[in-house]
Input
Amino acid sequence: MLSNLSEWLRARLDETGEEPAYRRLARLLQQAILSGRLASGVRLPSSRALAAELGIARNTVTHVYEQLAAEGYVQSHSGSGTYVADTSLERLRAEPRTGRRPLRDHQRLSKRGRRTIEMAGVSKLQWGAFMPGVPDVTEFPLKVWNRLHNRVWRQIRPELMTYAQGGGYRPLRRVLADYLRVARAASCEPDQVVITTGIHQSVDLAVRLLCDVGDEVWVEDPCYWGVRNLLISSGLKAIPIPVDEEGMNPSPRHLARPPRLIVCTPSHQYPLGCVMSLTRRRMLLDYAAANDCWIIEDDYDSEFRYGIHPLASLQGLDPHGQVIYVGSFSKVLFPGLRVGYMVVPTSMADFFAQGIAELYREGQMMQQAVLAEFIDEGYLGSHIRRMRGLYAERRGLLIDAVHRHYGDALPVFGGEAGLHMVLGLPQVRDDLAVSQAALAQGILTRALSGYYNSVRTMHTGLILGYACVPSERIDPAFEVLAQTMDRFMPSAA
Output
């Protein structure tokens, strides 16, 4: 091989490409060594000789030899030359087990990993009619944000460019506590607020600090698939609790076996949209206190209610310190911001602040500083008020479109708040097929049945988001969806 080395290298070095000559030469020599084309112990040509044969600078070859030596491909001996190192794997190889079949890619995952992927509900598309849970990011006051962002960066504070400690940026925790006391009737002080990257991380932190593998946790049925998947992948046993018009409704059988954790969406149940009644809230709080259960209140989009003021939080009613309140700015500002928050009981605040710093090594203090000023100067409140009016208009247009096509034949529910509504399909058995057929026509929806824990309890329907759909697009987009839905209606047979 050595006699042909220069010829082999020259043919490949002459190939067109933007890669510098020294990188291409190093890569080719690495390939030759790893493939066995250059055997261990073989002496490479001197840098002067190889440079002359390849027509390149000697410094280039010298640099490549030094890099190969640093990475262990060759060994240089002063006065005697450069030799291919022994990179053989023979001494590390074990005898293969007889009869073992190669594993497919999904089989190489852990059991927990396979279940996570199999249950995954995340969509590859995140924008368009009628994607649920996505705000209209084109309406975000970007000029204001950029001005605040530039102001914060001009201050050049080193503490904003390092890891976050103590639960996050203190001024953001202060203005958030003030905002939640007014807007959500929450009972909190700045020390109880912990800044996270969103509701998923908030729930994950609570699970890691409060639960052990095998613990039981109550989840609503139906419920948000993302949190349910997170709980199960963490080794917890999710117990589905049916939801009625008053919210989570545990049976005597459920109440006889207290869980470690209860996860609920009392202000706007996801996905059905009902509000947990005061009676049910008080029952849940008393039950949690009597049985030492923790409650995670997921308050994902309560800022947007149409016709009435936002409801008070469950956390604000809690006299026992059992509720962990979680929220984020994904719906009120934009999902890519990746800033969420928790309000934890005072007795647990230090543990959660330490836990998030230890497990996730949080940062983004500059982003938190910008957000603190955005809230403190009143821009958050004005943005929410403006978007509430816009979303109410779009909600009305979508409901009108449904009634125009179907009258009262199809139920619409959950549209009094938030960024989505549910269109019931009581006569359709396979709402997933409807959703997939709509996707083929460029319309994004989610099948309601996918949010239930079992076939026995599920109802069919489509979850339709209206927030990110321009008002003029709602009618034509629903026309396409209606044509798709009609193919699955019994009358179409």
Observations:
- The longest helix spans residues 379-406.
- The mean pLDDT is 90.
- The chain is about 40% helix and 10% strand.
